[in-house]
Amino acid sequence: MSFRLAPTVEAQGFRLEAHESVGSTNALALDRARAGDPGKLWIVSKKQESGRGRRGRVWATLEGNLAATLLVVTTGELRMAATLGFVAGLALADALDAVVPKGRIAVGLDGAGAGRNRFELKWPNDVLASGAKLSGILLESAMLDGGRFGVAVGIGVNVVAHPEDLPYPATSLKALGANCDAETLFLALSDAWSENAGLWAEGRGLTAIRERWLRRAAGLGGEVAVRIDGNVVRGTFETIDEDCRFVIRDSAGKMITVAAGDVHFGAVASAGAQ
């Protein structure tokens, strides 16, 4: 089976560029934007050799996994475009629900209690299954002519394999017993993106996206530690605010809002969030 878009999104003008192997789907998408591409372009591959995660970390896409980037070109606020990561998380979780048979995935977050969903969203950009990282999402942007900017919404999913040498649990669909290939998952993802992006509505529907995201939130109400520039803030994961920032209630009852940081739940949070 080859990569293809869902018919619903083809009708909306989305296009597809598929590769056997790439350096980085995000880098390619931003190259296309600088060359004048109008956006609504998906770039996909089953192997990515120089992908990146947050803060410049390496994110390898091994053969048979999914590396997918959607190029969005807009004149809106960059601050609002940054919330597309939450749209991406919801779209991927919906796609996974659609293609993975029920009963195959049992979710339980690492020390934060039993999960309510088979696939949960960890702030700000991970999708978890059985408490382990299944997918990472990375947004990158580039300024363009005419007051426009391009946003590369990168989504990497461990379909058939996952890295072993990580400081946190990771997994793949194959390791979880799900028989799904990258092409099937992408077909469902392209469809689910259309639905969730329509709800987001250029940021006008962010309240609805936030509410949907919270229903899938990993660790909500549980013990949490957030590492911010070398410091660790501890407390209870209370919510995300109207701008999708992480909100912690500390032991004194004070609400602390976090715009960026590394989140650790349950036993890891208690141990020190190394």
From TrEMBL:
EC number(s) from the headed UniProt entry: 6.3.4.15
Catalytic class of the enzyme: ligase
Molecular function GO labels: ATP binding; biotin--[biotin carboxyl-carrier protein] ligase activity
Domain of life from the UniProt record: Bacteria
Protein's UniProt keywords contain Nucleotidyltransferase: no
Positions of the BPL/LPL catalytic domain: 15-201
Classification via PANTHER family: BIOTIN PROTEIN LIGASE, BIOTIN--PROTEIN LIGASE
Name of the protein in question: biotin--[biotin carboxyl-carrier protein] ligase
Organism: Mesorhizobium hungaricum
